[in-house]
Amino acid sequence: MFIHDTVHVPEVQTAFPEAGMAFDTDLAAAAASRKRMFDRVSADGMLIAGMHLHFPAFSRLARRGDGYALYPEAWVHTMEAP
After folding, report:
1. CA 69, 32, 2: angle at the middle one, nearest 5?
2. Which of 3, 14, 22, 75 is 20 to 30 Å apart from 48, CA to CA?
3. pLDDT tens digits for 10-60?
4. Confidence of residue 75 (pLDDT cuts 50, 70, 90)
5. Which residues neighbour 46 within 8 Å (Cβ) at sequence distance 6 or greater?
6. Taking the C-alpha atoms of 51, 55, 59 and 62 in order, what is their torsion angle to the nearest 10 degrees?
7. Is 75 helix (H, G, I), strand (E, B) or coil?
8. Residue 23: which of 63, 51, 1, 61 has the closest Cα?
9. 8 A C-beta contact, residue 67 and residue 15
10. SS3 of 49, please?
């Protein structure tokens, strides 16, 4: 699932989904939306991608206390001869 601007600082907003940014025009709605999305992707084990996630920009979320832990996918680069 592409999460786009759901998070701007992944280390902070995954651990504390209620943490807002100046870009969130409605802080309460943004936090509620972030929590709903995080609940869904963590429960379903979905791979997420987003512009503000660190390289390789693909991760999974798992519930940790009141927040979530971000687990980046391993970058696998292979080249095969044609």
Report:
1. 60
2. 22
3. 999 999 999 998 888 899 999 999 999 999 999 999 999 988 998 888 999
4. confident
5. 1, 40, 60
6. -100
7. coil
8. 51
9. yes
10. strand
